[in-house]
Amino acid sequence: MTIQEMKERKKELGYTNEQVSELSGVPLGTVQKIFGGTTAAPRYETLQALQKILGYPSVIQEASLRYCAKKQGEYTLNDYYALPDEERVELIDGVLYDMASPSSVHQLLDGFIYAKLLRYVAQKGGECLPIVAPVDVQLDCDNKTMVQPDVVILCDRDKLTKHCVYGAPDFVLEILSPSTRKKDMVIKLNKYMNAGVKEYWTVDPVQKRVLVYDFSAENYPTIYGFDSKIPVRIWNGECEIDFQEVYEYVRFLYEKGEVE
After folding, report:
1. Which of 33, 94, 205, 232 satisfies CB 3.0 to 4.6 Å to 239 for a cystine?
2. Helix (H, G, I), strand (E, B) or coil at 222
3. Residue 77 lies in a domain
C-alpha cells in the first residue's frame, strides 16, 4: 500500500492524524510528517503499522467453518442463520467474524449504560428504543452484513422486525476488547458511518476513555475520560451518561486487577 493510497484511505475513513497515531502506535509527529509530505521514505516498520489500520478489512478471526465451505467475503445471511446458536459471529460484507465471550467488565458496562438510557426514555417518553445485546442489526438491508452491537438506540420503530433491526439504528455503542478493538474502531466505524448511524460511541475499559463520533459534525471523534459527563447528541444532550458513576460501578474489578 503506497503512502498516497494510505492518504486516500485515511480521508475515506475520516481519520485525523491523532486517531491514526492512537490506533497504529506511530508517534503523532511521525504521522504528521508522513501525511504532510515531509517524510517521503518512512521506515518499513512504520509503514506496516499504518497499513494495519488503513489497509482494507481482512479477517480478524475466522468463525468456525465446519458448517460452511465458502471463501471469506462470499458468506450470506443464509450461512449466518445456518450456524448453531452457540456460534456467536458477525457477518460484515460477506466475512464471518468470531465474537469472543464478553468479559465481566464488558457485561457490567453494557448493562449499566443501557439501564441509564432506558431510564431516560421511561421518564421522557417518545418513540426511541434502547436495546442491549444480543440484537441482530441488518445494517445495510442486504444479505451480506449482520452485526451485533453492544447497545443501540432505535428511534424509527418501523425498523424493528421479529428477527432484527432492519437498517441503521440512530445510536450505536461498542465496548472495546482486545479481540474486537480493530474491528470496532476501523471496520465497524466505517460501516456505521456509511450506513447512516448518527452517533457512535466506543468505550475503552482499559484506557478508561470514550470516543464519541457525531457523524453530523465536521470534527470527530470527541474524546472523554471516565471522569466525564457525556451528552447523548441524538437527544440534543438532554441525556448525559456520567462516566464517573459508571466507573464507580465497576471500580472493584480494576482494584482486583480484572481489567486488562
Report:
1. 232
2. strand
3. no
For residue 17, tell me if it sits in a domain: yes
User: For the residues of 52-106, what is the DSSP string, one character each?
Assistant: HHHSPP--SSBPP-TT--PPTT---HHHHHHS-TT--EEEETTEEEE-PPPPHHH
DSSP label of 159: G
Distance CA 86, CA 132 (A): 18
Rounded average pLDDT per 10-residue block, the chain, 260 residues: 78 82 87 83 80 60 48 90 87 92 94 97 94 96 96 98 96 93 92 97 97 91 97 97 98 94
As given in the structure block, the three cell numbers for residue 160 are: 424493528
Measure Cα distances from 20 to 29, 48, 51, 132, 185 in Å: 11, 13, 10, 30, 11
C-alpha distance from residue 82 to each of 67, 143, 243 (Å)? 7, 13, 39
Report how far residue 47's alpha carbon sits from residue 78's, in angstroms, rounded to the nearest whole number: 38
Q: Give the pLDDT confidence score for residue 56 in this predicted structure.
A: 53
pLDDT of residue 40: 67
63, part of any domain: no
Cα-flanking dihedrals φ and ψ of residue 242, to 5°? -85, 105
Which residues have a Cβ under 8 Å from the Cβ of 195 and sit 6 or more positions away? 139, 140, 167, 168
Among 187, 209, 212, residue whose Cα is nearest residue 200: 212
Domain count of the fold of the chain: 2
Neighbours of 89 (CB within 10 A): 20
What does the pLDDT read at residue 85? 79
